Amino acid sequence: MVQLRALLFSALSAPVALAALNEPCYGSGGVAGVCVTTAACSASGGTTISGACPADASDVKCCSKTSCANGASGNCRWTSDCAGTTVSNQCPGPAQMKCCSSSATGFGGYSAPAVPAVGACKAVAVSGANAVVAAWPGRVRQIYCTRDCACPGTSDHCCGKAIDFMCSDAGGVPTSSGRQIAEWIMNNRASLNLKYVIWGQRIWSPTVDSVMAWTSWRSMEDRGDITQNHWDHVHASFN
Ligand SMILES: [Zn+2]
Fold it and tell me: Taking the model in full, what pTM does it have?
């Protein structure tokens, strides 16, 4: 009875869940990982690290598996990031986490995306888009700038001053690719006239934050899916 009461109390008083179960994270050494329970991770033969998922406290940790049965260099990664062949049912997390035969990152490989002309999409955003696409050839699949909303609105997209750099094989498909692009945007904040940048449920702003690795950026709430948690695109807002 005491146990039940304690259980009920903890369930009722639990804060809004931040854990983005089955969404990406970076495991030890920055390898591809997925946020799952520690039990699910060990059952799949993976290893966990703490502090790499939005809410580790609820027993959800970043799980990675760098050795699996698909060639000598087989490792678990998001299928969008696999340069080789994949095998299912070898890895922790959802179906998009597969055993990949290649040790190469497999990021990108896309033809240059169309960048909008200056107009509804403002010049600062257009030049930011061009700069990122030039610095990361093949890594950006698609560019989005404006959105159908009045300026000022809830998003800088409403004013044509934000860019979404889609960097996985399709919208809603997770990737580990965006971290390097997001950190590059931070490092080039001055020339880009950057307002803030978001990747993987973390945000960085030059007016608030010092330059640091993405892993130390401010964390954001769980918005519910891969796209809204920025695991398929880097968002950059410009001044
Ligand atoms: Zn955006």
Answer: 0.91
